Amino acid sequence: MEKTWNNKAWFMVLPVLVLVAFSAVIPLMTVVNYSVQDTFGNNEFFWAGTDWFTDVLHSDRFWDALTRNLIFSAIILAIEIPLGILIALNMPKKGLGVPVCLVLMSLPLLIPWNVVGTIWQVFGRVDIGLLGYTLAALGINYNYVNNVFDAWVTLIVMDIWHWTSLVVLLCYAGLVSIPDAYYQAAKIDGASRWSVFRYIQLPKMKRVLLIAFLLRFMDSFMIYTEPFVVTGGGPGNATTFLSIDLVKTAIGQFDLGPAAALSIIYFLIILLLSWIFYTVMTTSDAQK
């Protein structure tokens, strides 16, 4: 019997395609258009080719911001992934503690990014902030506005507080999906706590860890709101990441051509690094 196809289903998908076109494709094409042209106003454009891309790639400002982004993302991943695994391993698997822990872990994720930045901006102030006032009372010279090290520590701790819960929830979902038969067999064999983690829990969490790794990398590499609210990219340019530099170029200086070229390069870097991470992690998993 020949199988028939019902093409009417495409009419159900059409509104989604139109929405995606307006929200993603059309703005992307606008950015591409600006990245290869120059304008002096009055809606008059002149072909610039790859000049803006060349200027961005030969700019020390771009490479400095990119280096800050990579360092920040590396620190965040090195802390949040192991910390999230550790917290998930110690969360209760049964009883009343389960919903309590899940709710507590979910609370930081519900706070908007700009509110998180405002909270830590006030929290770190020496005059009215609990953290700043406490450190000053202990004799620690803490000032995230003027000190580069303090600014970086504040942003890192803030991101850990805000996003470690995501890693915890993903790891916890992977742990609770492990059948009890694995643990019973390990108990019979006299396996240690480390052996259970190494040969049972960690392999079963690889998929969710891949998701957590990619999500946290992309979020940390695209971070904008929190450092903009807390430090404004300072002191100096110490916390000026690519996202902040892009906004300064597009809105502050109104250089639409360089900003468009920078945004495309920014997007391609995120896409390339995410693809590399995904390929490496899935390939190593398939070889085992």
TrEMBL record:
Keyword Transferase: no
Residues annotated as transmembrane: 12-36, 70-89, 96-115, 160-183, 208-225, 256-278
Subcellular localization, as worded in the UniProt entry: Cell membrane
Keywords: Membrane, Transmembrane, Transmembrane helix, Transport
Domain ABC transmembrane type-1: 66-277
GO CC terms: plasma membrane
GO biological process: transmembrane transport
Record-stated family: Belongs to the binding-protein-dependent transport system permease family.
Protein name: Glycerol transport system permease protein
